[in-house]
Design a protein that fits this description.
Layout lengths: L9 E6 L6 H15 L3 E6 L4 H8 L3 E4 L7 H13 L5 E4 L5 H10 L6 E5 L10 H7 L4 E4 L2 H10 L7 E3 L16 H7 L7 E6 L8 H14 L4 E6 L7 H13 L6 E5 L4 H5 L4 E4 L8 H8 L4 E4 L4 H4 L6 E4 L4 H13 L1 H18 L2 H28 L1
Parallel strand pairs: 1-2, 1-4, 2-3, 4-5, 5-6, 6-7, 8-9, 8-11, 9-10, 11-12, 12-13
Helix pairs in contact: 3-4, 8-13
Length: 391
């Protein structure tokens, strides 16, 4: 009988992406956490990529696969050879494209290993053609990171609802202290006066994140109140979107926001910078989940966010924050102004936000649920293989 009955599992995590962003970070984070919980874990990814380097830095075994220059058949053959060397309990893919390598290797090698796919992003393309039907028919379970993504999967993929499960991402609460010991230090770093209320935003500078709308809302807000306020925008441009970043900076100058606005560029110490904030703003146009919202709420920051994608699953309107229509700078300014004027409301929303994260979005709970799903898939596979032998 497999080791899962005693707790330990042999798990392959795959992520064939050459990029380094939220999806790739989550794949490494999950693999590392599972290894720390006593499971045997390998991560299959493209060699010489940031995800490979990060995985190695976490002492994870990295198996190079999904090479850019490799033919698909070569990758399939390499995976079959790897699987032939030992038994694995679970294969967990974090990228739909990985299925084109994994599924043929499993089918042609006659491996019964359960295959799980996490869908991190929504798709606007229907995948109900014969090739995708063949690929997805071998997937035992699809994990959607939000109800929004689950609905998208059911609309676009050839799978029945019973095979698609929502599993919200989580964060480690111990990394988000309630004390603001570095609040003054962060403000001094960016020359922000200590008496100003700081509205913060965290995210890559890309059109869908809503930076232009925030800047326009900032101008409306400043014209509407004498409350001293400063905007702290954390994040740099996505690769290939440096021109858009320059447009955003130019708009800030055009709106005369220089004295009350700071662009930090890319920073890894996001939670450190959040200590300087009083309100968190999230004006995205479309969001599959929104981990930075969880981080802000864990820091007891009230939020003003676009009611789009999975955001309403995280932010409870009028309880942990204020939801506004995406792309509406007037509504955005109105929500921010309400919180600026009502310190008690800010405090209440911040407290309730932290409690919501504690209740629904802890990483420990995520891992426990993931292990249960792994075990369910393994048990189902054993049961089905037993039925096949008796027929």
């Amino acid at each position: 009988m497999n080791d899962f009955c005693r707790g330990a599992m042999r798990i392959i995590q795959t992520c064939g992406s050459p990029s380094w962003g939220g999806l790739e970070m989550e794949a490494v984070k999950i693999a590392d956490a599972l290894q720390n919980r006593g499971h045997q874990v390998v991560l299959m990814c493209q060699p010489e990529t940031q995800i490979a380097r990060e995985a190695q830095a976490h002492s994870l075994e990295v198996v190079p696969l999904f090479r850019k220059d490799a033919q698909l058949l070569t990758s399939i053959r390499q995976l079959r050879q790897f699987l032939n060397k030992g038994e694995w309990d679970i294969i967990h893919a974090h990228l739909s494209h990985d299925l084109s390598t994994i599924v043929p290797a499993l089918r042609w090698g006659r491996f019964s290993t359960p295959l799980i796919l996490t869908r991190h992003m929504a798709s606007g393309v229907s995948k109900r053609d014969p090739i995708h039907r063949w690929l997805y028919s071998r997937v035992n379970r699809i994990l959607a990171i939000s109800h929004f993504i689950r609905e998208n999967v059911l609309r676009t993929c050839p799978v029945e609802a019973s095979r698609v499960t929502t599993l919200w991402n989580g964060i480690e609460l111990n990394k988000y202290p309630l004390e603001r010991n570095h609040r003054a230090d962060v403000r001094r770093e960016f020359n922000i006066p200590q008496d100003r209320l700081v509205i913060g935003m965290v995210g890559r500078i890309t059109p869908k994140k809503g930076h232009r709308e925030l800047l326009k809302a900032a101008r409306i807000l400043i014209n509407a109140t004498d409350i001293p306020v400063h905007f702290l925008i954390v994040g740099g441009a996505s690769f290939g979107e440096e021109a858009y970043e320059r447009e955003v900076h130019a708009l800030a100058k055009e709106l005369s926001l220089d004295e009350c606005l700071t662009f930090t560029g890319f920073r890894e110490d996001v939670t450190h910078l959040m200590q300087a904030m009083d309100i968190f703003v999230f004006p995205s146009y479309k969001e599959s989940f929104g981990v930075t919202l969880l981080e802000a709420m864990a820091m007891q920051l009230p939020v003003v966010a676009s009611s789009t994608g999975a955001v309403p699953e995280i932010v409870v309107d009028r309880e942990t924050g204020i939801l506004i229509p995406p792309g509406d700078e007037d509504a955005l300014a109105g929500g921010l102004l309400e919180l600026l004027r009502e310190p008690d409301l800010r405090q209440q929303m911040g407290i309730r936000g932290r409690l919501r994260v504690e209740q629904f979005f802890q990483f420990e709970g995520f891992l426990e649920n993931l292990e249960v799903i792994y075990q369910q898939c393994m048990e189902d596979t054993l049961l089905n293989s037993g039925k096949s032998k008796t027929n």
